[in-house]
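ok here's Oxaloacetate decarboxylase, beta subunit:
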Amino acid sequence: MWEQFLENFMNIGLFHIEIGQVIMWMISFILFYLAIKKGVEPLLLIPIGFGVFAANFPLAGLMEEGGLFYIFFHYGIETELIPPLIFLGLGAMTDFGPVIANPKTFFLGAAAQIGVYMAFFSALLLGFSVPEAASIGIIGGADGPTSIFLSSNLAPHLLGAVSVAAYSYMALVPIIIPPIAKALTTKKERQIIMKQMRPVSKTEKIIYPISASIVIILLVPQSAPLIAMFMLGNLFMECGVVDRLTDVSRNALMNIVTIFLGIGVGATMSAENFLRAQTIYVFILGVVAFAFATAGGVVFAKVMNLFAKEKVNPLIGAAGVSAVPMAARVVHVMGTEANPQNYLLMHAMGPNVAGVIGTAVAAGAFISAIM
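and the structure:
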């Protein structure tokens, strides 16, 4: 009886704590601090942080098959359910008007994807496998759900590091974009005033998600889960006859899946998965991806100006990194600082929205080529 009692006593978690788990708790506390004190993506970093915290309790079994967090991860992320639902909500909050009114801004969002491929090839040079390099490269799109979608397909063991890096750099948009954009533009270029865009009709806004789905999904079928849901959410909003579905998509559903997404992602960050040299490389390459994405959009805008009659302010190219709508707001502020009469917000939303689509297409292209 005494031996049985001693065996049961020694099976409490307190006697099985390892240094790696303590380090992961400290990382979760850092995520809490960033979210609560600094306001860095709190809607995601708090559930991700708690997922990290709880999943690293010894003997809890939360990520063992059948465990609560395993269910969130397996049925929500591994089966690719949650990221498309996030895109449904994003679509219900996104106005395609700026892209429709000025289609050439779509190319700025496409040009920003150079960051994805620069990080991809850099990761290959550092010894990562092709699926791992693709998962790391997609961080350059500054799109958390797409990063999670691709990583869960190609490199699930990197999911935690990739997702935290992606959302961290999304939150750092106001710090990362300005110095790069200013270094690549002159004050005169930043002062360029773009004329007001033409009004976009309701009919155009209804037709666009349907026609865009046809073109994109036919060209890159593997992007269908993200693009289809993104366009469906937008159609909900623009058609004007399903206000309840629009409201649920952008509010209640979005909030629910965000909780499950955060917990599921955080739960993958066990000490044995996260505390590796690879994790450091992921964060470094994430910065490389983001920097080249910003530079790619700005430089392409400058090239466009060599041939265009109506000049674009090169700053709007920096919004091609996605991170909707934060990147567009940062660009707008920079334009106002250069010229108080500048109003770039809606112009920047064109490449900003195009960046979301471009990153989803890049993810689909990676899956098609690798799997």
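+1. The mean pLDDT is 90.
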